[in-house]
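A quick word before the example. In earlier lectures we treated sequence and structure as two separate objects. From today on, think of them as two lines of the same record. Here is ABC transporter permease written that way.
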Amino acid sequence: MNVARYISHKIDGGADSGSFTSSVTKIAIISIAMGLGVMIVSFAILQGFRHEIQGKIFSFGAHLQVSRYDTNNSLEVAPIGGPSVEKRLHQFSQVKTVQAYAYKTAIIKTPDEVLGVVVKGIDEREGQSPMRQNLVAGEFLHFPADSASTDVLLSRKMANKLNLKVGSEALFYFIQNPPRIRRFRVSGIYQTGLDEFDEAYVVGDIRQIRELNAWPDSLVGGLEVVLKDFKRLDRTADQLYEALPYDLKIDKITEQYAQLFDWLQLLNRNVIIFLLLIIFVATFNMVATIFIMILERTNMIGVLKALGATDNQIRQMFFFRGLSLTVRGMLIGNAVGLGFCAIQYFFKVIPLDPENYYMDRVPIFWDFKVLLVLNVATFGTTLLAILIPTYLISRIKPVVAIKFD
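And the structure line, produced from the sequence above:
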């Protein structure tokens, strides 16, 4: 039988519920529980924001965009040969999917309103478009096998400005020589919450743009590349650049929307600082709790030393006491943090203003690796904090301690 653990258990079970030590231990448990719970919720929300916003950005631009070099700043650039470039891109192991796109500026005219937009033509030859995740009403584009689709997706902002709804038809005026007019049907409405997209882009069939530009099926405006690992974006972009023809360029999504990615990075720094402060407070409370326990049990320490107990045995006794408090606090903290995240994830009880936060509710992302790291970090730092005050035991003299009042 471990004597130190046995005595620690007796102290734990026999503490007076009204004593000062009992109150302090409750505060220590609460501080660990609240600290860990807040860290779990903070990281879940931070990762949720990151994945939601990155998902919205990637749905419009993927990770990398391959297009032809152009001296002007127009969205309508010279086309590239899609199949040949796609074949080169698929030779790289980091490339997951490659999808063709093309842009065309247009003016939408309804009986009451006029609005300038950019029509983005897409196809789904390599799988479903990530734009599907942004659909909030209606249906996604239908791609007939024998002709170009006349369906388009409008953002909710555009639909409200133009007084259009699912099933409505509108005229699109394409400014070119000669000018072209097309009638499209609104098959669905999307919403990203990002003004960069919602105020500018209409999504349609790339074959419509090919017909307007008199391109053959082999030409596209550019290619969007989705990687298997976004963290290897820079390295993969450099490798692709070296392998592609000299007249093609590669644009990274992190550079195209640098302000959004900088904002996410700033959020990450703020949360890390906040979490360090929480860990400091929790460990400081544990140090104070063990100090108080030692002071209140000074007589007992003196008696145990007089009976032959070593400093290490008594130190283990208080270590096991602190370990018990830590485990209880962590169990409560996990229950509180994961419970809050589950309620928000399934029931979406906390809403957000999409105009300011790019989404309509607080997002939650489940990352069990981060959860494990938080628990291990809390457990490790707290145990180290427990060891600090136990070294006071070696300075307690039995004769003085027995007389201590």
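Notice the following. The two ends are 31 Å apart (CA to CA). We will return to this example when we discuss secondary structure assignment.
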